Amino acid sequence: MVSMMQPVFKVFSLYLLLMISACQSKTDEVQQQAAEESPRLVVVVNYPLQFIVESLVGPEFQIMNPVPPNENPETWLPGNTTTQTIQQADLIVTNGADFADWVKKLSLPRSKVLRTSLVIKDALITVPDFEVHSHGAGGAHSHAGTVAFFWLDPRLMARQAEAIAERLIKLDPGSEKTIRVNLEKLNDSLKPLNHQLDQLREDYPGLNWYSRRPVYQYLAKRCDWTMHHLHWKSNEKPNQEDWKQLKTLQKQQKISLMLCESEPTEELVRELAEQGITVFTLDPLTVAPAQGDYVSNMQQQLTHLQMFLKQQQKNPLQKTNDDADSL
């Protein structure tokens, strides 16, 4: 009796295995189809890259800028849950030039990372004294570094956008037509900014500016200006040593203009005016603006900059030779 049951049991076991295999195959197929139909997750490190991706894609993509609105995207670090989400993304669009500390500190899958600075290597600006600090009694010394705010020259932003578009198409070939059409629209939207910058270069060539740190070099190069960064810490009141260095530099340069990333205090504006320096605030837009987008905000800021420089040309803030000698 047992011998008769064995063939039946084997047949039943084989049938059961085939059923399980078929169900598993069907499950895998459903999961794969669901994965293909779900939006591709694209992670970006700052608002300008977010703006580019949002301008290019449709609902086939989900865009994630993990940096909270009240945090600095250059220094912010993600928690464990956010880190896991970033690592599982389909594409991670980074800026390069050491922008965003978390990019350097997290273990990111190389195959998923697009470093946009690589497509503009020929245009990168390196500052020899990017960072100056002291170690003990060894005195102050400097380190070279690459300026990371490429998007302040819309021509460089356009090159970033082209590289991002190609990578998005590779990720989802079915979206190629949409992405290429949107890339053309994005390039068209940048034309007024290029016109404004060309006009600034024509009307106000050769200007010298101060800034707290290396931020505006690509904007300055586009306008034929020169930036002198002061190594002042962001959002901190300049200390006595900072003012001493500025006064020494003013004896040599006598620069009358300064660009600030955020609105300076009235006290700082007054103290700079005492040194013959007038301040203009130009937000580099590393975080999303409260209203509008990159293009509309840059247009507005460049319009205000043109008005500011025109006013300075009419009524420059100047000091007498006696005042300059007293610095």
From TrEMBL:
Keyword Plastid appears in the UniProt entry: no
Stretch forming the signal peptide: 1-25
Family: Belongs to the bacterial solute-binding protein 9 family.
Name of protein: Manganese ABC transporter substrate-binding lipoprotein
Stretches that traverse the bilayer: none
Classification via SUPFAM superfamilies: Helical backbone' metal receptor
Domain of life: Bacteria
Keyword set, alphabetical order: Lipoprotein, Signal, Transport
InterPro entries, sorted: Bact_metal-bind_prot9 (IPR050492), ZnuA-like (IPR006127)
Species: Gimesia maris
